[in-house]
């Protein structure tokens, strides 16, 4: 029985759990290395100064960058699931290399290999889930998967805390090796889930794609034929319109669906994540509590674990807000919140008293809440949404590579910045967060509630901005009007599109 016999919401739940396992891996590495950098047994083995701590952390990001670029070059030819499997196996190899390290060189190689694996996995699994999820709950499902990312961080911090008193290298080898077990679990879940129907249609495997859609739209034994036919029509229309736009050179041209603009938007937005301050908070939570707030290693590790519990609880709010308020408004509100938090954090660290240290710790907790309500879920949802189908694998690979590249720069400089300029480090992130508000307002069209194919309409209509067009489409959909891609064309061009669609079907 295919896909464990799951249909409808059960199949969507299975896809969400499989995607969530991939993000558990992501979150686990976020959490595990931050706690180990200051672990006594880890320091006794490798003797890292602040510069080398940044290098050890950031080399994982370098590997992830190359993994994403490899994914973009492959362009989904092997399927979303196949590349994700390759990522989990590569990450497992990297985890084994790190856990068995006795030299710094082997540790660094293991970090790079594991990073390549995570880059391959994450850049494909998010596309896979987005392409399978129905448009009206796509944000909710991706946001729920990203709660698994926080669960991964939570597992890492509390596992480290549980073994932190061990006087041997087991205190750091076991937490690193555990990544391999998580990666194999993720691969096992992917094996029993379907391939993306949009990818299958793109590869002219229409029968397989239609079968997956039939299972997704079957609820309580009844097939929703209207939704099935509508989705198939939208997919074939999008493929027809984008059929002449498949090469890398087309990606940098101003084509009918504005591929270049959409890829640039996704790349900038992904870079925003690291410069919001989320990357240092994720990777250096224990380090920040020790070196900025002035806590002991054991208390810092304990508080880091509690922070991840709070992070997970706060992420449940995103399940509701990401569809209720939309991506764009969530970006603007939370960017304003993160700006204020970073300013207060900088001021409290500068005052440097016991009371200000408590307030600073509270600000880190508040920052995590704002971040998960806006940028954490929103960025991973928005990237695949805004990409045209033909360029989705290439574009999302590039966008995720921008995230890793920005994270590399931030991770490399944060330990040195905290050592040299102290509290002023957090003002840098406050300035970036402030700049994200006008960027979201002026350039990011709202995608909540729109199908992946309908989003093309926001960029096809050159008579208005994508932001205004998205608002018009959302109003039309609320009024019960049907939105189709060929509405963007008139006369001979509409006939040409219809001809392409009929041929594709």
From TrEMBL:
It comes from the Eukaryota. It is a multi-pass membrane protein. This is Major facilitator superfamily (MFS) profile domain-containing protein. InterPro entries: MFS_dom, MFS_sugar_transport-like, MFS_Sugar_Transporters, MFS_trans_sf, Sugar/inositol_transpt. It is found in: Membrane. PANTHER family: MAJOR FACILITATOR SUPERFAMILY (MFS) PROFILE DOMAIN-CONTAINING PROTEIN-RELATED, PLASTIDIC GLUCOSE TRANSPORTER 4. It comes from Salinomyces thailandicus. GO terms for cellular component: membrane. The chain crosses the membrane at residues 9-28, 56-74, 86-102, 108-128, 140-159, 171-192, 263-285, 297-322, 329-351, 357-383, 395-418, 424-444. Belongs to the major facilitator superfamily. Sugar transporter (TC 2.A.1.1) family. Keywords: Membrane, Transmembrane, Transmembrane helix, Transport. Residues 15-448 form the Major facilitator superfamily (MFS) profile domain. GO terms for molecular function: carbohydrate:proton symporter activity. The lineage of its organism: Eukaryota, Fungi, Dikarya, Ascomycota, Pezizomycotina.
């Amino acid at each position: 029985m295919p896909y464990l016999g799951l249909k409808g919401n059960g199949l969507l739940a299975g896809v969400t759990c499989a995607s969530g396992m991939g993000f558990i891996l992501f979150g686990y590495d976020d959490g595990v290395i931050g706690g180990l950098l200051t672990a006594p047994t880890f320091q006794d083995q490798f003797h890292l100064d602040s510069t080398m701590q940044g290098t050890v952390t950031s080399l994982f990001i370098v590997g992830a960058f190359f993994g994403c670029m490899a994914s973009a070059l492959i362009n989904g030819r092997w399927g979303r699931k196949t590349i994700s499997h390759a990522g989990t196996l590569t990450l497992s190899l990297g985890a084994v290399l790190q856990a068995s390290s006795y030299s710094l060189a082997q540790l660094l190689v293991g970090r790079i290999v594991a990073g390549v694996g995570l880059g391959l996995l994450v850049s494909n699994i998010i596309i896979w889930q987005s392409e399978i999820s129905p448009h009206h709950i796509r944000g909710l499902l991706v946001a729920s998967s990203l709660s698994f990312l926080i669960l991964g961080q939570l597992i890492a911090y509390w596992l480290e805390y549980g073994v932190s008193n061990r006087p041997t290298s087991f205190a750091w080898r076991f937490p690193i090796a555990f990544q391999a077990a998580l990666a194999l679990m993720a691969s096992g879940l992917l094996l029993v889930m379907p391939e993306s129907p949009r990818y299958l249609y793109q590869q002219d495997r229409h029968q397989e794609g239609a079968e997956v859609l039939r299972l997704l739209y079957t609820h309580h034994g009844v097939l929703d034929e209207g939704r099935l036919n509508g989705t198939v029509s939208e997919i074939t229309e999008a493929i027809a319109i984008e059929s002449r736009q498949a090469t890398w050179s087309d990606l940098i041209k101003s084509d009918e669906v504005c591929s270049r603009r959409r890829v640039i938007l996704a790349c900038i937005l992904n870079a925003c994540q690291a410069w919001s301050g989320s990357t240092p908070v994720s990777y250096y939570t224990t380090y920040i509590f020790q070196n900025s707030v002035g806590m002991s290693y054991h208390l810092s590790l304990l508080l880091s674990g509690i922070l991840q519990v709070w992070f997970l609880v706060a992420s449940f709010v995103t399940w509701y807000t990401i569809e209720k308020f939309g991506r764009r408004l969530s970006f603007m509100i939370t960017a304003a919140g993160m700006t204020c938090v970073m300013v207060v954090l900088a001021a409290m660290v500068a005052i440097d008293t016991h009371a200000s240290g408590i307030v600073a710790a509270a600000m880190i907790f508040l920052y995590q809440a704002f971040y998960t309500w806006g940028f954490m879920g929103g960025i991973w949802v928005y990237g695949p949404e805004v990409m045209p189908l033909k360029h989705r694998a290439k574009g999302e690979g590039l966008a995720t590579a921008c995230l890793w590249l920005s994270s590399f720069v931030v991770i490399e400089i944060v330990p040195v910045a905290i050592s040299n300029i102290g509290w002023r480090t957090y003002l840098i992130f406050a300035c970036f967060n402030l700049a994200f508000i006008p960027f979201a307002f002026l350039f990011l069209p709202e995608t909540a509630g729109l199908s992946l194919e309908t989003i093309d309409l926001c960029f096809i209509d050159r008579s208005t901005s994508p932001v205004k067009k998205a608002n018009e489409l959302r109003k039309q959909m609320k009024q019960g009007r049907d939105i189709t891609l060929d509405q963007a064309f008139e006369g001979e061009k509409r006939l040409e599109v219809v001809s392409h669609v009929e041929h594709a079907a």
